[in-house]
């Protein structure tokens, strides 16, 4: 309903700056249960975040250099260690092994020993791992926008630009 001071309207418990778009669409920000932990109120205060904040849980799942790229490659289906090394040539075998172990411990990746010699292992995403796809795509889009808005620091030879994470 229009007519509030400052051109705001109130719809279903959510405040929005007056626009042609209905509440909850476009770039209008609605109020969600977790907003109070992240977004300051009119007085500039937020609730104290809980230690088990879902945002922190999601970010912890993909934290660590190379983790998102390992997840990206596994989004394409099950892969062996050697195949992952080929797809991520700048990633050392030691770091790849560490990332796969961490992802397994978080319940995001499974490891299946294949029969035969030499011993081979096939890695695949769990349902929880596959559920990270929208987060990774959003992080990619946000990162691309931040790169566009801020000058990129020069990359050292050890920090090559890698392929796209997005769709």
As laid out across the biggest beta sheet, the strand order is 3-5-4
CATH architecture field of the domain at 57-130: Orthogonal Bundle
**Overall radius of gyration:** 21 Å
Order of helices and strands: EEHHHEHHEEHH
- Major sheet characteristics: 3 strands, antiparallel
Inertia-based shape: globular
Oligomeric state of the chains in view: single chain
The CATH topology of the domain at 57-130 turns out to be: Arc Repressor Mutant, subunit A
Query: How far apart are the termini?
Result: 39 Å
Mean pLDDT across all amino acids: 77
Q: At the first level of CATH, what is the class of the domain at 57-130?
A: Mainly Alpha
Structural class designation: alpha+beta
Count of strand segments: 5
As residue ranges, the low-confidence spans are 1-28
**What is the strand content?**
5-15%
Tell me the CATH superfamily of the domain at 57-130. Answer: Winged helix-like DNA-binding domain superfamily/Winged helix DNA-binding domain
Give the proportion of residues in helices: 25-40%
Count of alpha/pi helices:
7
């Amino acid at each position: 309903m229009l007519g509030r001071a400052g051109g705001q309207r109130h719809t279903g418990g959510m405040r929005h700056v007056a626009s042609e778009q209905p509440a909850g669409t476009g770039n209008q920000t609605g109020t969600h249960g977790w907003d109070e932990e992240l977004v300051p109120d009119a007085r500039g205060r937020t609730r104290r975040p809980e230690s088990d904040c879902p945002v922190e849980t999601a970010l912890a799942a993909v934290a660590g250099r190379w983790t998102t790229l390992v997840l990206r490659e596994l989004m394409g289906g099950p892969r062996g260690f050697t195949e992952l090394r080929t797809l991520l040539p700048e990633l050392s075998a030691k770091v790849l092994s560490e990332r796969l172990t961490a992802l397994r411990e978080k319940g995001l990746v499974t490891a299946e020993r294949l029969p035969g010699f030499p011993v081979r292992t096939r890695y695949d995403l769990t349902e929880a791992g596959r559920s990270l796809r929208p987060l990774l795509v959003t992080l990619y889009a946000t990162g691309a926008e931040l790169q566009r808005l801020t000058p990129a620091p020069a990359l050292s030879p050890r920090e090559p630009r890698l392929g796209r994470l997005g769709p």
